[in-house]
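This section describes the prediction task in plain terms. A model, or a person checking by hand, is given the sequence of a single protein chain and must write out its three-dimensional structure as a string of C-alpha coordinates. No templates, partner chains or ligands are provided. The sample shown here is typical of the held-out split.
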Amino acid sequence: MILVFGGTTEGRIAVKELEESGSLYFYSTHDGEQHLSVSNGVIISGAMTAEGMETFCRENDIRLIIDAAHPFASELHSNIEKASRHVKVPVIRFERIYPKRDFRFIWCEDFSDAVEKLKGAKRVLSTAGVKSIGKLKGLAESGIEVFHRILERESSINLAKREGVDEAHICYYSKEEDQSKVLEKIKPDALLLKESGLSGGYSEKVEAALKIGIRIFVIKRPSLPEEFITVNGPYGMRRMVEKLLPEFYPLHSGLTTGSCATAAAIAAATSLVEGTFTNMVFLLLPNGESIPVETVNAEVGHAYVVKDSGDDPDVTDKMEIHSRVELLKTSDIEIVGGEGVGRITLPGFDYPPGEAAINKAPRKMIEDNLRARFSNRGFKVTVSVPGGEEIAHRTFNPRLGIEGGISIIGVSGIIKPFSEESFVSSIRKCMEVAKASNSERVVINSGAKSEGCLKRFYNTLPPQAFVQYGNKIGDTISIANELGFKLISLGIMLGKAVKLAEGNLDTHSSNVTINRDFIASVLKESGCSEEIVNKAYTITLARELWEIVPAENMQSFVNTVITKCHKVCSPNSPNAELTVLLISENGSIFF
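The expected answer:
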Protein backbone atom coordinates (compact mmCIF):
# COMPACT_ATOMS: atom_id res chain seq x y z
CA MET A 1 0.00 0.00 0.00
CA ILE A 2 1.29 3.47 -0.95
CA LEU A 3 0.41 6.86 0.54
CA VAL A 4 0.90 9.85 -1.78
CA PHE A 5 0.96 13.46 -0.62
CA GLY A 6 0.03 15.62 -3.60
CA GLY A 7 -2.17 18.56 -4.51
CA THR A 8 0.36 19.50 -7.21
CA THR A 9 1.17 18.83 -10.86
CA GLU A 10 3.64 16.21 -9.64
CA GLY A 11 0.88 14.60 -7.59
CA ARG A 12 -1.32 14.39 -10.65
CA ILE A 13 1.52 12.78 -12.65
CA ALA A 14 2.20 10.34 -9.82
CA VAL A 15 -1.45 9.29 -9.81
CA LYS A 16 -1.41 8.67 -13.57
CA GLU A 17 1.64 6.44 -13.19
CA LEU A 18 0.30 4.55 -10.17
CA GLU A 19 -3.05 3.93 -11.86
CA GLU A 20 -1.28 1.75 -14.42
CA SER A 21 -0.49 -0.77 -11.68
CA GLY A 22 -4.12 -1.62 -10.90
CA SER A 23 -3.11 -1.66 -7.21
CA LEU A 24 -4.73 0.29 -4.39
CA TYR A 25 -3.12 3.48 -3.03
CA PHE A 26 -4.09 6.60 -1.04
CA TYR A 27 -3.82 10.16 -2.38
CA SER A 28 -3.82 12.93 0.21
CA THR A 29 -4.25 16.69 -0.29
CA HIS A 30 -4.50 19.47 2.26
CA ASP A 31 -7.73 21.07 1.04
CA GLY A 32 -9.27 18.53 -1.34
CA GLU A 33 -9.55 21.15 -4.11
CA GLN A 34 -7.55 19.18 -6.68
CA HIS A 35 -10.06 17.22 -8.75
CA LEU A 36 -8.82 13.84 -9.95
CA SER A 37 -10.53 10.88 -11.55
CA VAL A 38 -9.06 7.64 -10.22
CA SER A 39 -9.96 3.97 -10.55
CA ASN A 40 -7.65 2.39 -7.99
CA GLY A 41 -6.87 5.25 -5.62
CA VAL A 42 -8.62 6.44 -2.47
CA ILE A 43 -8.60 10.24 -2.25
CA ILE A 44 -8.41 11.75 1.23
CA SER A 45 -8.16 15.40 2.31
CA GLY A 46 -7.22 17.36 5.40
CA ALA A 47 -3.94 18.28 7.04
CA MET A 48 -2.07 15.52 8.89
CA THR A 49 0.28 15.94 11.81
CA ALA A 50 3.30 13.66 12.10
CA GLU A 51 1.39 11.64 14.69
CA GLY A 52 -1.65 11.46 12.41
CA MET A 53 0.48 10.21 9.53
CA GLU A 54 2.07 7.59 11.74
CA THR A 55 -1.34 6.34 12.87
CA PHE A 56 -2.66 6.31 9.30
CA CYS A 57 0.37 4.34 8.08
CA ARG A 58 -0.02 1.71 10.79
CA GLU A 59 -3.78 1.34 10.36
CA ASN A 60 -3.58 1.03 6.56
CA ASP A 61 -0.40 -1.06 6.30
CA ILE A 62 1.43 1.66 4.34
CA ARG A 63 4.72 0.30 2.96
CA LEU A 64 5.84 3.33 0.95
CA ILE A 65 5.26 7.10 1.00
CA ILE A 66 5.52 9.34 -2.06
CA ASP A 67 5.99 13.02 -1.23
CA ALA A 68 4.77 14.90 -4.31
CA ALA A 69 3.73 18.00 -2.34
CA HIS A 70 4.80 21.56 -3.13
CA PRO A 71 8.55 22.15 -2.60
CA PHE A 72 7.78 24.96 -0.14
CA ALA A 73 5.52 22.77 2.06
CA SER A 74 8.33 22.53 4.63
CA GLU A 75 6.14 21.59 7.57
CA LEU A 76 4.56 18.75 5.58
CA HIS A 77 7.98 17.46 4.47
CA SER A 78 9.13 17.52 8.09
CA ASN A 79 6.03 15.64 9.28
CA ILE A 80 6.49 13.03 6.56
CA GLU A 81 10.12 12.54 7.59
CA LYS A 82 9.19 12.08 11.27
CA ALA A 83 6.32 9.68 10.54
CA SER A 84 8.33 7.60 8.06
CA ARG A 85 11.18 7.25 10.55
CA HIS A 86 8.85 6.03 13.29
CA VAL A 87 7.04 3.48 11.13
CA LYS A 88 10.21 2.58 9.19
CA VAL A 89 8.69 3.27 5.76
CA PRO A 90 10.83 4.70 2.92
CA VAL A 91 9.92 7.99 1.25
CA ILE A 92 10.22 8.80 -2.44
CA ARG A 93 10.38 12.53 -3.01
CA PHE A 94 8.84 13.39 -6.40
CA GLU A 95 10.79 16.58 -6.96
CA ARG A 96 10.35 19.18 -9.65
CA ILE A 97 12.86 19.94 -12.39
CA TYR A 98 14.65 23.22 -11.66
CA PRO A 99 16.55 25.49 -14.07
CA LYS A 100 20.07 26.54 -13.04
CA ARG A 101 20.10 29.52 -10.71
CA ASP A 102 20.58 32.70 -12.73
CA PHE A 103 23.19 35.18 -11.45
CA ARG A 104 21.06 38.08 -12.77
CA PHE A 105 18.41 37.42 -10.11
CA ILE A 106 18.49 38.47 -6.47
CA TRP A 107 18.35 35.25 -4.45
CA CYS A 108 16.66 35.26 -1.04
CA GLU A 109 17.14 32.63 1.66
CA ASP A 110 13.54 32.90 2.92
CA PHE A 111 10.62 35.32 3.13
CA SER A 112 12.24 37.43 5.85
CA ASP A 113 15.32 37.85 3.68
CA ALA A 114 13.10 38.77 0.72
CA VAL A 115 11.33 41.48 2.74
CA GLU A 116 14.69 43.02 3.64
CA LYS A 117 16.05 42.91 0.10
CA LEU A 118 12.85 44.35 -1.42
CA LYS A 119 12.72 47.43 0.80
CA GLY A 120 14.18 49.62 -1.92
CA ALA A 121 11.31 48.79 -4.30
CA LYS A 122 8.17 50.85 -4.88
CA ARG A 123 5.74 48.42 -6.56
CA VAL A 124 6.11 44.66 -6.10
CA LEU A 125 4.21 41.88 -7.85
CA SER A 126 4.31 38.73 -5.74
CA THR A 127 3.60 35.38 -7.38
CA ALA A 128 4.64 33.54 -4.21
CA GLY A 129 1.09 32.34 -3.50
CA VAL A 130 -1.80 33.33 -1.29
CA LYS A 131 -0.32 31.65 1.80
CA SER A 132 2.70 33.97 1.62
CA ILE A 133 0.67 37.19 2.01
CA GLY A 134 1.08 37.24 5.79
CA LYS A 135 4.85 36.74 5.46
CA LEU A 136 5.14 39.85 3.25
CA LYS A 137 3.28 42.34 5.44
CA GLY A 138 6.58 43.98 6.27
CA LEU A 139 6.70 45.33 2.72
CA ALA A 140 3.40 47.21 3.05
CA GLU A 141 4.49 48.49 6.45
CA SER A 142 7.55 49.97 4.71
CA GLY A 143 5.31 51.88 2.29
CA ILE A 144 5.76 49.50 -0.64
CA GLU A 145 2.71 48.81 -2.83
CA VAL A 146 2.33 45.03 -3.14
CA PHE A 147 0.18 43.17 -5.66
CA HIS A 148 -0.56 39.49 -5.10
CA ARG A 149 -1.19 37.07 -7.93
CA ILE A 150 -3.48 34.28 -6.70
CA LEU A 151 -5.81 31.58 -8.00
CA GLU A 152 -9.35 32.71 -8.61
CA ARG A 153 -11.01 30.29 -6.21
CA GLU A 154 -13.10 30.96 -3.16
CA SER A 155 -10.63 29.69 -0.56
CA SER A 156 -7.79 31.83 -1.95
CA ILE A 157 -9.92 34.95 -2.27
CA ASN A 158 -11.22 34.59 1.29
CA LEU A 159 -7.71 34.10 2.67
CA ALA A 160 -6.41 37.17 0.82
CA LYS A 161 -9.24 39.28 2.22
CA ARG A 162 -8.66 37.99 5.75
CA GLU A 163 -5.05 39.11 5.38
CA GLY A 164 -6.32 42.61 4.52
CA VAL A 165 -5.61 42.67 0.79
CA ASP A 166 -8.10 44.82 -1.14
CA GLU A 167 -9.46 43.80 -4.54
CA ALA A 168 -7.33 46.40 -6.35
CA HIS A 169 -4.17 44.63 -5.25
CA ILE A 170 -5.28 41.13 -6.27
CA CYS A 171 -4.28 39.79 -9.67
CA TYR A 172 -5.87 36.49 -10.67
CA TYR A 173 -4.14 33.75 -12.61
CA SER A 174 -5.46 32.98 -16.07
CA LYS A 175 -4.19 30.04 -18.14
CA GLU A 176 -4.53 31.98 -21.36
CA GLU A 177 -3.02 35.26 -20.11
CA ASP A 178 0.36 36.40 -21.35
CA GLN A 179 2.83 36.94 -18.47
CA SER A 180 4.18 40.07 -20.16
CA LYS A 181 0.74 41.65 -20.32
CA VAL A 182 0.25 41.11 -16.59
CA LEU A 183 3.51 42.90 -15.86
CA GLU A 184 2.70 45.71 -18.29
CA LYS A 185 -0.68 46.19 -16.60
CA ILE A 186 0.65 46.38 -13.04
CA LYS A 187 4.00 48.02 -13.92
CA PRO A 188 5.96 46.72 -10.92
CA ASP A 189 9.63 47.54 -10.48
CA ALA A 190 10.20 44.18 -8.78
CA LEU A 191 8.87 40.65 -9.27
CA LEU A 192 8.94 38.25 -6.34
CA LEU A 193 8.59 34.55 -6.93
CA LYS A 194 9.52 31.25 -5.37
CA GLU A 195 11.98 28.82 -6.90
CA SER A 196 9.05 26.65 -7.88
CA GLY A 197 10.53 24.71 -10.80
CA LEU A 198 9.43 24.27 -14.38
CA SER A 199 5.98 22.89 -13.52
CA GLY A 200 5.29 25.99 -11.40
CA GLY A 201 5.55 28.36 -14.37
CA TYR A 202 8.90 29.69 -13.14
CA SER A 203 10.54 30.06 -16.56
CA GLU A 204 7.60 31.90 -18.12
CA LYS A 205 7.51 34.41 -15.26
CA VAL A 206 11.22 35.25 -15.28
CA GLU A 207 11.40 35.45 -19.08
CA ALA A 208 8.57 37.99 -19.13
CA ALA A 209 10.24 40.06 -16.39
CA LEU A 210 13.66 39.98 -18.09
CA LYS A 211 12.09 41.10 -21.34
CA ILE A 212 10.66 44.22 -19.72
CA GLY A 213 13.67 44.87 -17.49
CA ILE A 214 12.05 44.24 -14.11
CA ARG A 215 14.24 43.18 -11.20
CA ILE A 216 13.65 39.60 -10.15
CA PHE A 217 13.75 38.39 -6.56
CA VAL A 218 13.63 34.64 -6.00
CA ILE A 219 13.12 32.80 -2.71
CA LYS A 220 15.28 29.67 -2.72
CA ARG A 221 13.49 26.37 -2.31
CA PRO A 222 13.94 24.90 1.17
CA SER A 223 16.10 21.83 1.65
CA LEU A 224 14.52 18.39 1.99
CA PRO A 225 15.22 15.68 4.57
CA GLU A 226 18.36 13.74 3.63
CA GLU A 227 16.56 10.41 4.10
CA PHE A 228 14.23 11.05 1.15
CA ILE A 229 14.95 9.20 -2.11
CA THR A 230 14.64 11.88 -4.78
CA VAL A 231 13.28 11.40 -8.30
CA ASN A 232 12.19 14.14 -10.70
CA GLY A 233 9.80 12.49 -13.11
CA PRO A 234 7.25 9.70 -13.63
CA TYR A 235 9.70 7.12 -14.99
CA GLY A 236 12.11 7.54 -12.12
CA MET A 237 9.23 7.34 -9.66
CA ARG A 238 7.90 4.15 -11.19
CA ARG A 239 11.30 2.47 -11.28
CA MET A 240 11.91 3.38 -7.64
CA VAL A 241 8.47 2.02 -6.65
CA GLU A 242 9.34 -1.19 -8.52
CA LYS A 243 12.57 -1.42 -6.56
CA LEU A 244 11.18 -0.63 -3.10
CA LEU A 245 7.77 -2.28 -3.44
CA PRO A 246 8.16 -4.91 -6.20
CA GLU A 247 4.68 -6.36 -5.78
CA PHE A 248 2.89 -3.03 -6.45
CA TYR A 249 3.33 -3.27 -10.24
CA PRO A 250 2.53 -6.70 -11.67
CA LEU A 251 4.93 -5.95 -14.56
CA HIS A 252 8.12 -3.94 -14.27
CA SER A 253 9.56 -1.35 -16.64
CA GLY A 254 12.92 -1.44 -18.40
CA LEU A 255 15.39 0.60 -20.44
CA THR A 256 15.48 1.04 -24.21
CA THR A 257 18.59 0.23 -26.21
CA GLY A 258 18.92 4.00 -26.75
CA SER A 259 19.07 4.64 -23.00
CA CYS A 260 21.64 1.88 -22.54
CA ALA A 261 23.84 3.23 -25.33
CA THR A 262 23.60 6.75 -23.89
CA ALA A 263 24.46 5.68 -20.34
CA ALA A 264 27.42 3.68 -21.66
CA ALA A 265 28.57 6.73 -23.65
CA ILE A 266 28.42 8.92 -20.52
CA ALA A 267 30.50 6.43 -18.53
CA ALA A 268 32.99 5.99 -21.38
CA ALA A 269 33.38 9.75 -21.88
CA THR A 270 33.81 10.27 -18.13
CA SER A 271 36.68 7.79 -18.02
CA LEU A 272 38.25 9.41 -21.07
CA VAL A 273 37.90 13.07 -20.04
CA GLU A 274 38.11 12.89 -16.24
CA GLY A 275 40.13 9.72 -15.84
CA THR A 276 37.61 8.21 -13.44
CA PHE A 277 35.56 5.05 -13.74
CA THR A 278 31.97 5.02 -12.54
CA ASN A 279 29.53 2.15 -12.06
CA MET A 280 26.48 4.42 -12.20
CA VAL A 281 25.53 7.49 -14.22
CA PHE A 282 22.52 9.77 -14.18
CA LEU A 283 20.81 9.61 -17.53
CA LEU A 284 18.88 12.65 -18.81
CA LEU A 285 15.70 11.38 -20.49
CA PRO A 286 13.92 13.24 -23.33
CA ASN A 287 11.21 14.44 -20.91
CA GLY A 288 13.84 16.26 -18.83
CA GLU A 289 14.01 13.94 -15.83
CA SER A 290 17.13 12.07 -14.71
CA ILE A 291 17.35 8.43 -13.72
CA PRO A 292 20.28 6.36 -12.41
CA VAL A 293 21.66 3.63 -14.68
CA GLU A 294 24.27 1.04 -13.74
CA THR A 295 27.26 0.88 -16.08
CA VAL A 296 30.31 -1.35 -16.54
CA ASN A 297 33.67 0.07 -17.62
CA ALA A 298 35.57 -2.13 -20.06
CA GLU A 299 38.57 0.20 -20.43
CA VAL A 300 39.31 3.92 -20.76
CA GLY A 301 36.82 5.33 -23.27
CA HIS A 302 34.79 2.13 -23.43
CA ALA A 303 31.81 1.13 -21.27
CA TYR A 304 28.66 -0.92 -21.57
CA VAL A 305 25.25 -1.44 -19.97
CA VAL A 306 23.57 -4.80 -19.47
CA LYS A 307 20.11 -4.13 -20.87
CA ASP A 308 17.23 -4.49 -18.46
CA SER A 309 13.94 -4.84 -20.32
CA GLY A 310 11.89 -5.32 -17.17
CA ASP A 311 9.00 -7.67 -17.83
CA ASP A 312 8.64 -6.68 -21.47
CA PRO A 313 9.11 -9.67 -23.84
CA ASP A 314 12.12 -8.03 -25.48
CA VAL A 315 14.64 -10.22 -27.28
CA THR A 316 17.45 -7.79 -26.38
CA ASP A 317 16.99 -8.29 -22.63
CA LYS A 318 20.30 -8.91 -20.80
CA MET A 319 22.35 -8.07 -23.91
CA GLU A 320 25.38 -5.81 -23.54
CA ILE A 321 25.00 -2.41 -25.21
CA HIS A 322 28.49 -0.94 -25.70
CA SER A 323 29.70 2.59 -26.41
CA ARG A 324 33.29 3.38 -27.32
CA VAL A 325 34.14 7.09 -27.18
CA GLU A 326 37.01 8.94 -28.87
CA LEU A 327 37.87 12.64 -28.55
CA LEU A 328 37.56 14.81 -31.67
CA LYS A 329 39.45 18.02 -32.38
CA THR A 330 36.16 19.73 -33.28
CA SER A 331 33.12 20.23 -31.05
CA ASP A 332 31.04 17.83 -33.16
CA ILE A 333 29.44 14.69 -31.79
CA GLU A 334 29.61 11.86 -34.32
CA ILE A 335 27.57 8.71 -33.69
CA VAL A 336 28.24 5.53 -35.67
CA GLY A 337 27.27 1.89 -35.47
CA GLY A 338 29.67 -0.94 -34.80
CA GLU A 339 29.35 -4.71 -34.41
CA GLY A 340 25.77 -5.95 -34.00
CA VAL A 341 24.10 -2.67 -34.99
CA GLY A 342 22.09 -2.98 -38.20
CA ARG A 343 22.41 -0.97 -41.39
CA ILE A 344 19.48 0.69 -43.13
CA THR A 345 18.93 -0.60 -46.69
CA LEU A 346 15.56 0.98 -47.54
CA PRO A 347 14.21 4.55 -47.52
CA GLY A 348 11.62 5.70 -44.98
CA PHE A 349 13.79 5.97 -41.86
CA ASP A 350 15.24 8.92 -39.98
CA TYR A 351 18.45 8.42 -41.93
CA PRO A 352 19.23 7.30 -45.50
CA PRO A 353 20.23 3.78 -46.63
CA GLY A 354 23.74 2.90 -45.60
CA GLU A 355 23.51 4.62 -42.21
CA ALA A 356 23.58 2.74 -38.91
CA ALA A 357 20.13 1.88 -37.55
CA ILE A 358 20.42 4.27 -34.62
CA ASN A 359 17.20 6.25 -34.51
CA LYS A 360 16.95 10.01 -34.18
CA ALA A 361 15.76 10.01 -30.54
CA PRO A 362 18.68 7.90 -29.19
CA ARG A 363 21.16 9.99 -31.20
CA LYS A 364 19.73 13.13 -29.62
CA MET A 365 19.84 11.53 -26.16
CA ILE A 366 23.52 10.72 -26.59
CA GLU A 367 24.30 14.23 -27.84
CA ASP A 368 22.22 16.01 -25.17
CA ASN A 369 23.78 14.00 -22.34
CA LEU A 370 27.34 14.50 -23.53
CA ARG A 371 26.75 18.22 -24.13
CA ALA A 372 25.23 18.62 -20.65
CA ARG A 373 28.29 17.07 -18.99
CA PHE A 374 31.20 18.04 -21.23
CA SER A 375 30.14 21.39 -22.70
CA ASN A 376 31.62 21.92 -26.18
CA ARG A 377 33.93 18.93 -26.34
CA GLY A 378 33.67 16.77 -29.45
CA PHE A 379 33.30 13.00 -29.44
CA LYS A 380 33.01 10.08 -31.80
CA VAL A 381 30.68 7.49 -30.26
CA THR A 382 30.64 3.97 -31.66
CA VAL A 383 27.68 1.91 -30.45
CA SER A 384 27.96 -1.88 -30.69
CA VAL A 385 25.96 -4.89 -29.54
CA PRO A 386 27.83 -8.22 -29.36
CA GLY A 387 25.47 -10.91 -30.70
CA GLY A 388 23.21 -8.28 -32.26
CA GLU A 389 23.36 -9.72 -35.78
CA GLU A 390 22.13 -13.10 -34.60
CA ILE A 391 19.33 -11.74 -32.40
CA ALA A 392 18.12 -9.35 -35.14
CA HIS A 393 16.38 -12.22 -36.93
CA ARG A 394 13.88 -12.31 -34.05
CA THR A 395 12.94 -8.63 -34.50
CA PHE A 396 11.09 -6.52 -37.08
CA ASN A 397 14.41 -5.59 -38.73
CA PRO A 398 14.44 -8.10 -41.62
CA ARG A 399 10.93 -6.95 -42.59
CA LEU A 400 12.08 -3.33 -42.48
CA GLY A 401 15.18 -3.93 -44.55
CA ILE A 402 17.66 -3.42 -41.71
CA GLU A 403 20.54 -5.83 -42.09
CA GLY A 404 23.43 -6.98 -39.93
CA GLY A 405 22.10 -6.31 -36.48
CA ILE A 406 19.54 -4.74 -34.19
CA SER A 407 18.30 -1.15 -34.09
CA ILE A 408 19.12 1.32 -31.33
CA ILE A 409 15.70 2.72 -30.56
CA GLY A 410 13.50 4.33 -27.93
CA VAL A 411 11.56 7.59 -27.91
CA SER A 412 10.99 7.99 -24.15
CA GLY A 413 14.07 6.05 -23.05
CA ILE A 414 11.92 3.74 -20.92
CA ILE A 415 10.19 0.47 -21.83
CA LYS A 416 6.84 -0.08 -20.23
CA PRO A 417 5.96 -3.79 -20.31
CA PHE A 418 3.72 -4.61 -23.26
CA SER A 419 3.68 -0.89 -23.94
CA GLU A 420 0.92 0.10 -26.33
CA GLU A 421 2.91 3.23 -27.13
CA SER A 422 5.95 1.27 -28.28
CA PHE A 423 3.84 -1.15 -30.33
CA VAL A 424 2.01 1.68 -32.11
CA SER A 425 5.40 3.31 -32.66
CA SER A 426 6.64 0.16 -34.41
CA ILE A 427 3.50 0.16 -36.59
CA ARG A 428 4.23 3.76 -37.55
CA LYS A 429 7.78 2.88 -38.50
CA CYS A 430 6.57 0.01 -40.72
CA MET A 431 4.01 2.35 -42.25
CA GLU A 432 6.71 4.96 -43.01
CA VAL A 433 8.75 2.29 -44.77
CA ALA A 434 5.63 1.30 -46.76
CA LYS A 435 5.16 4.93 -47.77
CA ALA A 436 8.78 5.20 -48.83
CA SER A 437 8.32 2.16 -51.12
CA ASN A 438 6.11 4.41 -53.32
CA SER A 439 3.19 1.98 -53.16
CA GLU A 440 -0.15 3.75 -53.55
CA ARG A 441 -1.83 1.06 -51.48
CA VAL A 442 -1.00 -0.17 -48.00
CA VAL A 443 -2.37 -3.55 -46.91
CA ILE A 444 -2.83 -3.89 -43.16
CA ASN A 445 -3.28 -7.26 -41.51
CA SER A 446 -3.19 -8.98 -38.13
CA GLY A 447 -0.28 -11.40 -38.60
CA ALA A 448 1.66 -13.86 -40.69
CA LYS A 449 -1.27 -16.08 -41.70
CA SER A 450 -3.50 -13.30 -43.00
CA GLU A 451 -0.54 -11.51 -44.56
CA GLY A 452 0.38 -14.59 -46.58
CA CYS A 453 -3.14 -14.69 -48.06
CA LEU A 454 -3.10 -10.98 -48.82
CA LYS A 455 0.31 -11.14 -50.51
CA ARG A 456 -1.07 -13.72 -52.91
CA PHE A 457 -4.11 -11.50 -53.50
CA TYR A 458 -2.03 -8.32 -54.05
CA ASN A 459 0.86 -10.09 -55.77
CA THR A 460 2.21 -7.00 -57.53
CA LEU A 461 2.77 -4.94 -54.41
CA PRO A 462 6.23 -4.68 -52.81
CA PRO A 463 6.67 -6.55 -49.49
CA GLN A 464 7.00 -3.25 -47.60
CA ALA A 465 3.37 -2.41 -48.51
CA PHE A 466 2.11 -5.02 -46.01
CA VAL A 467 1.90 -3.79 -42.42
CA GLN A 468 0.73 -5.81 -39.41
CA TYR A 469 -1.61 -4.14 -36.93
CA GLY A 470 -1.82 -6.88 -34.29
CA ASN A 471 -4.96 -5.59 -32.59
CA LYS A 472 -4.46 -1.85 -33.14
CA ILE A 473 -6.74 -1.50 -36.14
CA GLY A 474 -7.90 2.06 -35.44
CA ASP A 475 -4.41 3.40 -34.77
CA THR A 476 -3.00 1.69 -37.88
CA ILE A 477 -5.67 3.09 -40.20
CA SER A 478 -5.21 6.56 -38.68
CA ILE A 479 -1.46 6.42 -39.27
CA ALA A 480 -1.98 5.32 -42.90
CA ASN A 481 -4.42 8.19 -43.42
CA GLU A 482 -2.05 10.66 -41.74
CA LEU A 483 0.86 9.59 -43.99
CA GLY A 484 -1.24 10.23 -47.09
CA PHE A 485 -2.09 6.75 -48.38
CA LYS A 486 -5.03 7.04 -50.76
CA LEU A 487 -5.77 3.30 -50.85
CA ILE A 488 -5.98 1.24 -47.66
CA SER A 489 -6.87 -2.45 -47.61
CA LEU A 490 -7.79 -4.02 -44.29
CA GLY A 491 -7.40 -7.79 -44.19
CA ILE A 492 -9.12 -9.38 -41.23
CA MET A 493 -10.10 -12.83 -40.04
CA LEU A 494 -13.51 -13.55 -38.58
CA GLY A 495 -12.53 -13.59 -34.89
CA LYS A 496 -11.33 -10.00 -35.01
CA ALA A 497 -13.92 -9.00 -37.61
CA VAL A 498 -16.92 -9.60 -35.32
CA LYS A 499 -15.23 -7.54 -32.57
CA LEU A 500 -14.46 -4.76 -35.05
CA ALA A 501 -17.94 -4.86 -36.55
CA GLU A 502 -19.35 -4.22 -33.07
CA GLY A 503 -17.30 -1.02 -32.84
CA ASN A 504 -14.02 -2.12 -31.22
CA LEU A 505 -11.03 -0.60 -33.01
CA ASP A 506 -8.69 -2.37 -30.58
CA THR A 507 -9.57 -6.08 -30.67
CA HIS A 508 -7.22 -7.30 -27.93
CA SER A 509 -8.86 -9.90 -25.70
CA SER A 510 -8.04 -7.80 -22.63
CA ASN A 511 -10.27 -5.06 -24.02
CA VAL A 512 -13.11 -6.98 -25.65
CA THR A 513 -14.38 -10.56 -25.68
CA ILE A 514 -16.76 -12.38 -27.97
CA ASN A 515 -20.29 -10.92 -27.74
CA ARG A 516 -22.75 -13.68 -28.60
CA ASP A 517 -25.72 -11.32 -28.51
CA PHE A 518 -24.09 -9.19 -31.19
CA ILE A 519 -23.22 -12.23 -33.31
CA ALA A 520 -26.81 -13.43 -33.02
CA SER A 521 -28.02 -10.04 -34.28
CA VAL A 522 -25.65 -10.25 -37.26
CA LEU A 523 -26.91 -13.74 -38.12
CA LYS A 524 -30.49 -12.52 -37.90
CA GLU A 525 -29.71 -9.49 -40.09
CA SER A 526 -28.12 -11.87 -42.61
CA GLY A 527 -31.40 -13.75 -42.99
CA CYS A 528 -30.45 -16.85 -41.03
CA SER A 529 -33.18 -18.96 -39.45
CA GLU A 530 -33.95 -18.79 -35.75
CA GLU A 531 -32.28 -22.17 -35.30
CA ILE A 532 -29.01 -20.80 -36.77
CA VAL A 533 -29.32 -17.56 -34.79
CA ASN A 534 -29.59 -19.54 -31.55
CA LYS A 535 -26.39 -21.40 -32.40
CA ALA A 536 -24.54 -18.14 -31.76
CA TYR A 537 -24.89 -18.92 -28.05
CA THR A 538 -23.19 -22.30 -28.38
CA ILE A 539 -19.94 -21.22 -30.01
CA THR A 540 -16.60 -20.74 -28.26
CA LEU A 541 -14.71 -19.12 -31.12
CA ALA A 542 -16.07 -16.85 -33.86
CA ARG A 543 -14.39 -18.92 -36.57
CA GLU A 544 -16.96 -21.67 -35.88
CA LEU A 545 -19.42 -19.46 -37.76
CA TRP A 546 -17.83 -20.56 -41.04
CA GLU A 547 -19.31 -24.01 -40.33
CA ILE A 548 -22.59 -22.81 -38.80
CA VAL A 549 -23.78 -20.32 -41.43
CA PRO A 550 -25.64 -22.13 -44.27
CA ALA A 551 -24.30 -21.72 -47.80
CA GLU A 552 -27.42 -19.84 -48.90
CA ASN A 553 -26.84 -17.20 -46.18
CA MET A 554 -23.05 -17.00 -46.39
CA GLN A 555 -22.72 -14.12 -48.87
CA SER A 556 -25.28 -12.07 -46.95
CA PHE A 557 -23.46 -12.84 -43.67
CA VAL A 558 -20.09 -11.85 -45.15
CA ASN A 559 -21.53 -8.64 -46.63
CA THR A 560 -23.10 -7.70 -43.29
CA VAL A 561 -19.85 -8.20 -41.37
CA ILE A 562 -17.78 -6.30 -43.97
CA THR A 563 -20.29 -3.41 -44.11
CA LYS A 564 -20.26 -3.03 -40.34
CA CYS A 565 -16.45 -3.17 -40.21
CA HIS A 566 -16.24 -0.54 -42.94
CA LYS A 567 -18.63 1.74 -41.07
CA VAL A 568 -16.58 1.49 -37.88
CA CYS A 569 -13.24 2.15 -39.62
CA SER A 570 -14.24 4.86 -42.09
CA PRO A 571 -13.98 7.79 -39.64
CA ASN A 572 -10.29 6.93 -39.21
CA SER A 573 -9.60 7.19 -42.95
CA PRO A 574 -11.44 10.32 -44.19
CA ASN A 575 -8.91 10.96 -46.96
CA ALA A 576 -8.48 7.41 -48.22
CA GLU A 577 -10.47 4.71 -49.99
CA LEU A 578 -10.83 1.85 -47.53
CA THR A 579 -11.33 -1.76 -48.66
CA VAL A 580 -12.23 -4.43 -46.11
CA LEU A 581 -11.32 -8.01 -46.96
CA LEU A 582 -12.62 -10.86 -44.81
CA ILE A 583 -10.29 -13.87 -44.78
CA SER A 584 -11.63 -17.36 -44.16
CA GLU A 585 -9.85 -20.20 -42.36
CA ASN A 586 -8.86 -21.81 -45.66
CA GLY A 587 -7.42 -18.54 -47.04
CA SER A 588 -10.35 -17.49 -49.22
CA ILE A 589 -10.86 -13.72 -49.40
CA PHE A 590 -14.29 -12.04 -49.42
CA PHE A 591 -14.78 -8.36 -50.23
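For orientation: The chain has a mean pLDDT of 89.
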